[in-house]
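# nightly structure sweep
# worker-07 picked up a monomer target from the shared queue
# config: single-sequence mode, recycle default, output format = structure tokens
# input follows
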Amino acid sequence: MTSKKGFRYRLKRRLLLTVTGIIATVIVAILVFSVVPVPFSAVMAERQVSALVSGDTDYRARSRWVSMSEISPWMPLAVIAGEDQKFPEHWGFDFAAVQSVLDSRQRGEMRGASTLSQQTAKNMFLWDGRSWLRKGLEAGLTVGLETLWGKKRILTVYLNIAEFGPGIFGVEMASETYFHKHASQLTRQEAALLAAILPNPILYHADAPSVYVRGRQQWISRQMEQLGGTGFLEKYHLY
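# output follows
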């Protein structure tokens, strides 16, 4: 009995130390990347490993970090308009959007409710897929980002690690690939087009946009205007 109790104690202690170590590592990473450019994300790594495992040796997860001042103000405005219009006001979670999604699913519709903060946490630290474990980790990481980074940093990192197509990560790489220009030169309509493919950048394409993507592009452009244009970013100190 004493031996079993000793084993259980050591097991619990090691588990506690492991969990504590993981949490401490994540906190340190969040603090470091609050000022240091993010070189890659978990999604980039997952995509690259999956390609290698499947034998696709031509795949390359490409990204190029740029600061917010090197991105056209139309781009952050476009992703807010298209993905998360309450981004400056919420604390990482949009509970009204969650309820709306639950209602839509009862009607047989499929919608997402992740905020830009949640998407940044997921893309940077977690894996693809749907599970309660991943959602729980995402929630904890989201709180960490909101607490230690702030809105402008979250938006900057999001724009640098978001997936815009096969192997294309970040707005600078997307801008160079699709428009042959730097992200700082993106027009309003180009930014709206890039934002339009974000819900599924593997299915939707900026270089050959479908009727649906074009329609979403125009909707996002109208929303950008209704939000107040780039003055919206200045109002909330996001640019």
